């Protein structure tokens, strides 16, 4: 059973967190969830996780972001182009594709995360293929290095030549998207700079927006505003109730903080500054 994973202890997650940050000292952390306990009701999608690596587990904030996104389906219609950044297992992007039958969704992550990078991309590709009957040709998987956003590589697609080959494919062009989504993508200052630089190229102008759910206590969050201003983007912090109302207490976490502390997460809307005037 793809969801039948043994719950890992705090040491396992802390080790994965340190690997993801390259040993850099950062404030804040993300918790992943115990899948065997989180899915107390039938899941609309079938996803696989792999133990110990940060990019191959479903993190707590992903459930919050998924609940918020599926309750705000108007953002992805009609025929919206959607890009999930740092998709990991693909829970958020695949849920949007399943809930919004006209949305075109690109799931992206990066194979350069140390020794675990290939595993992250392989797992993401497998999850997209596993749910092809729900999402079909409207979903593709690409490898995206935020530092080089114009050099994406195809990993899976039903609609593009070679997309089902099961190997790292050719370079593909990413057109500017209507909506970008990111969950726990503000990890380090270096990563935040690269992320905002990539968004400046990947968001449709005007009108393109990005929604980020992130641990508000992270060191890198403080840098976001100045980086956005440098690239002509503005930030709107949406009310905490936007996330708190989505019943996050139903999901069990293997790592503190407890699930009833929803206010540790921020929901951020990034858009072009001229679009907000």
Describe this structure in words.
This protein is of the alpha/beta class. Helices cover 29% and strands 18% of the residues. Strands 5-4-3-2-1-6-7-9-8 form a nine-stranded mixed beta sheet, with helices on both faces. Helix 3 packs parallel to helix 4 and helix 7 runs parallel beside helix 8. The termini are far apart. The N terminus is likely disordered.
Keywords:
277 residues; alpha/beta
List the helices and strands and how they pair.
Blueprint: H1 10-20, H2 35-38, H3 60-70, E1 81-85, H4 91-99, E2 104-109, H5 117-130, H6 132-135, E3 139-143, E4 152-157, E5 171-172, E6 179-183, H7 189-202, E7 209-215, H8 221-230, E8 233-238, H9 241-244, E9 265-272
Parallel strand pairs: 1-2, 1-6, 2-3, 6-7
Antiparallel strand pairs: 3-4, 4-5, 7-9, 8-9
Give a nutshell description of this structure.
With 277 residues, this protein is an alpha/beta fold. It is globular, with a radius of gyration of 17 Å.
Summed up, the helix count is 9
Strand order of the largest sheet: 5-4-3-2-1-6-7-9-8
Main beta sheet = 9 strands, mixed
Which structural class should the secondary elements be placed in? Answer: alpha/beta
What percent of residues are in strands?
15-25%
Helix-strand string: HHHEHEHHEEEEHEHEHE
How far apart the termini lie comes to 50 Å
Low-confidence stretches: 1-9, 32-43, 247-262
Our Rg estimate from Cα atoms comes to 17 Å
Q: What is the helix content?
A: 25-40%
- What overall form do the CA principal axes indicate? globular
How many E strands? 9
Oligomer: single chain
Please, what is the average pLDDT? 79
């Amino acid at each position: 059973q793809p969801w039948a994973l043994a719950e890992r202890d705090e040491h396992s997650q802390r080790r994965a967190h340190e690997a993801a940050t390259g040993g850099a000292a950062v404030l804040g952390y993300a918790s992943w969830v115990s899948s065997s306990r989180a899915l107390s009701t039938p899941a609309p999608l079938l996803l696989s996780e792999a133990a110990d690596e940060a990019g191959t587990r479903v993190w707590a904030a992903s459930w919050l972001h998924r609940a918020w996104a599926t309750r705000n389906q108007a953002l992805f219609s009609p025929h919206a182009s959607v890009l999930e950044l740092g998709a990991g297992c693909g829970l958020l992007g695949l849920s949007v594709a399943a809930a919004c039958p006209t949305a075109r969704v690109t799931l992206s992550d990066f194979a350069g995360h140390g020794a675990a990078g290939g595993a992250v991309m392989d797992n993401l590709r497998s999850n997209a293929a596993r749910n092809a009957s729900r999402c079909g040709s409207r979903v593709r998987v690409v490898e995206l290095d935020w530092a080089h956003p114009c050099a994406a590589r195809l990993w899976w697609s039903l609609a593009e030549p070679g997309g089902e080959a099961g190997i790292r494919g050719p370079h593909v062009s990413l057109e500017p998207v209507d909506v970008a989504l990111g969950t726990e993508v503000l990890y380090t200052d270096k990563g935040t700079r690269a992320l905002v630089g990539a968004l400046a190229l990947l968001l449709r102008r005007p009108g393109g927006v990005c929604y980020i759910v992130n641990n508000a206590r992270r060191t890198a969050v403080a840098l976001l505003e100045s980086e956005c201003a440098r690239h002509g983007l503005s930030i709107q912090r949406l009310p905490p109730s936007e996330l708190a109302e989505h019943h996050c207490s139903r999901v069990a976490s293997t790592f503190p903080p407890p699930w009833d502390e929803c206010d540790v997460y921020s929901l951020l809307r990034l858009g072009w500054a001229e679009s907000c005037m």
